[in-house]
Amino acid sequence: MDIATLKTIKSNFVKELQDSASGKKTSLPFIINQIPTTPLVNNGEIFQALVIGGSIYKKAILKKVKKKLSILEIENGEQPLFKTAEDLFLFVGKIANPNINIISINFAHRIKATVRKNSGNSSKSRIDGILIGGSKESTLHGLIDKKVGEEIERYFRKNKKDALVAVANDTICLLLAGLTQYKPIILAGGADGTGTNFAFFLDKKNAVNLESANFDKFPQSKEGKIIDSTSSNRGGWIFEKETSGAYLYKHFNLIIKERNIDYPQISSTEELDLVSRKNIPQVSEIANNLLKRSAQLVSCQIAGITEFKKRGMVFNMEGSLFWKANGYKETVEETVKQLIPQYKVKFVEIKDSGILGAAKLVS
Questions:
Q1: Nearest alpha carbon to residue 313 among 179, 177, 184, 181
Q2: Does one domain contain both 190 and 95?
Q3: pTM to 2 decimals?
Q4: With b meaning 16 or more CB within 10 Å and e meaning fewer, what string describes 21-33?
C-alpha cells in the first residue's frame, strides 16, 4: 500500500480514538477497564493466576514480594470447549488450587469490564467482566450477560470453597503485564497473531480495550469482502479479517483460485509464511504481499495509538504473526517510522505475559 493511503488510514484511526474517548459511537467498542487501586493480595501472600479461553490453558502459583511478583509454579495443558457455563465452572474448579483463595483469570473472550464491590462474602473491590458472547466453539450458554468472576465465586461457594476471583480480557492482561517493567503512561499491549487487538492506558486508573479488530475506516480488499460475506459475524471485525492469522491464508486461496494458478490450497497462515520464504514464481510473491499488507495495516493502528497518546510508546506484543512471520516485524517498524517520525516506538515481548497480566489484576 502507498504511504498516502496508509497515512489516511492512520488519521482515520486517530479520529476514531478521539471520538470514542469523547463518548461518541464509532467502530471501536473502546471498552474502558477501571483498574482497582487497592490490591487483593497482601505482601508475602500466595495466589493463583489462570489463562483461559484458547486451546491451551495456563495456571500458575505466584507470590507477591513487596511490589514484585515471583512465579513459584507454572504449567499448561489442553483446554476443553465450554459449551455451557457449567463446563467452565467445572474446569476452573478442577485446575484451581484448593488451598488458595485469591484467583485472577486472563479470559480470552469478549467481555465488558466492570468493578464489583460488596460482592459475595467480601467488600473488597475486584475487576470483573460481563460476558458479551462466546465463540463458535465455546458458546458458554448460561453465562452471557453475566459477570464471569462473580458466577465462578458463586460456584465455589456452592462447593464449599471461599475465593475471590478477578477477571479481565486477554489484551488488557497483556497490557498489565507491561507494568512489571514500564510505567503505564507509555504502555500499550498488542495482539497480532490469530486475532488483532490493542489496549492502552488512558490514565493510571483506566485502561481501554479497543477491540480494534472491528475498525472499519480503511479500504477493504476484494478477498476481505468475500471472506466477510461468508463469515458467521458478517459486517463485524472487518479489520481482523484483513490482517490476522485466522484469515490471511484464506486471502491467499482466493487469489490463487481467481488467477487460475496451479497451486494447492493451504490451510493455515503458518503455511502462508512458509510459501513466502520460498521462490515459487507468482505464488511466493502473493504470500509476501499479503504479509506486507497485514503489517502495514497493523502499523496504522500502532501509529494511531502513539499519535493519540502524543508520546513515544512501548508495545508489549503477542502473536506469532508479528514475531515470526517473514519480514513482518521489520515492515511494521519501517511503516511506523514513516507514519510518525516524530515519535519513537519500541516493541517488547515480556515472558509469561498472560500469567503476569492476570496477576496484576489482584496485586
A1: 184
A2: no
A3: 0.94
A4: eeeeebbbbbbeb
